[in-house]
Each structure stands twice: as structure tokens, then as C-alpha cells.
Amino acid sequence: MASTTTTPDEPQEEPTEEESALETARRQLQHAADHLDINPNVVERLKHPKKVHEVTVPIERESGDVEVYTGYRAQHDSVRGPHKGGLRYHPGVTREECVGLSMWMTWKCAVMDIPFGGAKGGIAVNPKELTDDEKEQLTRRFTDEIRSAIGPTKDIPAPDMGTDPQTMAWLMDAYSMQEGENIPGVVTGKPPIVGGSEGREEAPGRSVAIIAREAIEYYDRDAEETTVAVQGYGSVAANAAHLLDDWGATVVAVSDVNGGIYDPEGFDTHAIPSHDEEPEAVTRQDAPEAITNEELLELDVDVLIPAAIGDVLTVDNADDIAADMIVEGANGPTTTAASEIFAEREIPVIPDILANAGGVTVSYFEWLQDINRRSWSLERVNDELETEMLAAWQDVREEFEERDVTWRDAAYIVALSRVAEAHETRGLWP
Ligand code: GLU
User: Residues with beta carbon inside 6 Å of ligand 1?
Assistant: First the structure.
């Protein structure tokens, strides 16, 4: 009966400017499915999450008042392995957003061919308004509320917007203490001292840089003559900027929540503190020009990397984007309508599910290390990440060339074929 189920999350037929992550994710799925000869029942199943956990998370604030937050864990699909995906702390977190983001995780793991399914969770909270102690309490209580849903073979959270390695250490500790044994594999993105992997924090930015480098080469350009604008300067953005800068590209603009800085000659990106080193420091740097985040997106550069938040490339600015190519660092920075405009304008958009998949790929390495109780060197992590990214790039590139579709469709085709084949092979239970 799943094929006739209608839920309040059902997307409208025509793209609107206000598009939720779930609407975008469902449209992208249908778009890719239209290119493939796959069982429509499998596609219908994949438009819906397997389960969504909603919990209330009360904590005692330092004022003595009790505040109650709402937390979610959306588990989309697990046909290829345990659910996997980030946990975000952000005031805008909703059930619908978690479901849409959990779908992206299913495709991200499948495009990388790693044996995980998709999940995403979050708490609707502004972490900037909490002290460290309050964040710890929030994380421990949330972990307890979703305890039965997570575990190294069930669902493995990781950092995302508003959470970091410390958050993951608290989660791992809260889970392990209750289970009565040390279970590092319940979560990835932990500090290395408690079972985290070397290179995990830098991995999403590293993969964005690797994929940007491959795309630059694919379009017959020379990295040394390439200008890059990066929206954001958090972990993904700063690490991508550092590597591209190291590889000879000219990073002409970066930004944070307060705005951006622009230098046509290029910045020494290592001299600009990332958000983790010093929050919101970008606009305090010496630079020839201060720009807004909107202006950054419209700069005439070779490569634009939106690596901050979702939905920044929309119908409102898609016609004004002057970059020759876009590499998505954030999850879901481009709405469906904007993607269509970029396709018409022949601006290649290398999708998030490929470009920033280094995060979940090194999460997989971390999980392997935890299960085997053996840590890998940074060199090994980076080498294996490079190998996995190049293999995924090659798989996507083949579909792109053979089918003459967008890069996003090509990545979805790779991912969806794998997930659909696994569903067909396993069959519907019972
Ligand atoms: N939050 C990251 C993402 O969106 C990482 C997920 C993970 O490592 O599980 O890809």
C-alpha cells in the first residue's frame, strides 16, 4: 500500500521557491528514477523514511529553569547497511528537514559504495545560546531518548551543523555507560583519543577539494589559473579552501555568517582563522573589499563552492550566478528550480552527495577502526579517501558522459541503481 500513501510531506508538483529539504530530495529521486528502468514500487518506498523518531529533550538551564527541546532521528533506508548520518543542532531543525537530509545520506553512502544506509537527526535548538555544560546535558539526554534506535550495527550518528567531535564524545560516553561497555562504533567523528579517526574532521572539505580538482581538470582548466569563491569558513569550507590554495588555485573570496571578504589577487587561506579556530573571524580580516554573502555567490569566478548552509542558490539568484562551475560543499545548497536554471545555462553543478561525501567515507573508515580496535595513520586515511573519491568520481563521470544528464542526475543514477538493485535482490518483507 505504500504506493498510494499520501503524507503531509508530499511535495507539490511544481517547484516553488520555498522548498523543503524533503521536497528537494523527493524531486531529485523522481528525476533520477525517470532515467532508469527500475521498479516504481521501489522508488515509491524510497520516497518515505523507514522510521522517524521524535523525542522531547528536557534540560535544566543554568538559570534553574527547565527548557524542553524537540529532537529527531530520521532513518531513511538500511538496505545496504546500518543507518548513517549526522546530528545537527540548529533552531531550524524540523522532522521534514531530517527526513530530506536522511534521504541524501542514503544516496551519499550509495554513490561512495560504502555499506551504510541513510539517517539524519537533530535538535531544534540554538547551540550558541547554550553553555558547554548545557550542551553536554542536552546530548546525553537526547542519546538516552534514542538509545534503542542507535548502535554500531543499527544507526551511527556523526557531526553536522552545530555539533562537533566533543558532542560525539559525549554521545559515545552516554551510550557506552548505559550499555556497560565501551562502544566507540556507535558514533563517528569523535576525537581520536576516544576512538575517532585521524583526518575525519578535515575529510568533507578534503573531498570537496579533490572533486573540485577533478572537475577543474575535466573541463580542461589548470588549477594554477583557477579562481575560487567559497561561501562559509567552517570545517568544510576552510579545509576545501586550504587544499585548493595549496594546489595552486586562487581563493578570491570566503565568508561567514556576518559577510565575506574579496581579494582578486587571492588570499593566503591559512592566515584566515576557520570558524573552529576563531568563530566569526572572517570579516575582521584585512581585505581589499568587504562583500555580502549574496555578492560572494554572484562573483565572476571559475569555481563557486557554497559550503555553509542549504538553499542559497535559488530562483532569485540563479540567473545572476557568474561562476563557470559550482561544487556543492554544503548539503542541499541548490533548490530544484535553481538546478534547472543552471542546467539550461550549462553551468555544471557537482552535487553534494558526491563532493562532500568524504565525511561519511572517513566515518566508515572510523567505524572499521573502532570495530577492529585498530587505528590507521593519517596518511592511510587520506590515501584511502583519495582512492574512494576517485572511484566514485569515475562512476559518476561515466553516467554523465553516457547518458548526457546533469552531474546531479549522474550521481543519483549511480546511487539509486545500487540501492534499487539491493532492494530488488532482498525483496519486500514479509
Ligand atoms: N554530517 C555529514 C554529512 O552530511 C557526515 C555524516 C556521517 O559521517 O555520518 O555527510
Answer: 84-86, 108, 158, 160, 188, 331, 356, 359-360, 363
Q: What is the pLDDT of residues 393-407, one digit of tens each?
A: 999 999 999 999 999
Whether the CB-CB separation of 396 and 410 falls below 8 Å is answered with: yes
Closest among 40, 42, 7, 9 to 24, alpha carbons compared: 9
Active site residue 120: yes
- Cell (9 digits) for 256: 561567514
| 88 CA closest ligand 1 atom index | 1
- For atom 9 of ligand 1, the residue with the nearest CA is 85
* Cα 364 from Cα 356, distance rounded (Å): 14
Query: 421: CA distance to ligand 1 center in Å?
Result: 24
Element containing residue 278 per DSSP (H, E): none
List the catalytic residue out of 84, 108, 120, 135.
120
Please tell me the distance between residue 257's alpha carbon and the centre of ligand 1 in angstroms. Answer: 21
What does pLDDT average to over the chain?
94
Contacts with 184 (C-beta within 8 Å, 6 or more apart), sequence order: 172, 176, 190, 194, 195, 370
Dump pLDDT digits (tens) for 234-267: 999 999 999 999 999 999 999 999 999 999 999 9
pLDDT bin (cut points 50, 70, 90) of residue 354 is very high
Which cell numbers in the block locate residue 205? 572539505
Q: Which domains does the chain have, with CATH numbers?
A: 4-184 (3.40.50.10860), 203-355 (3.40.50.720)
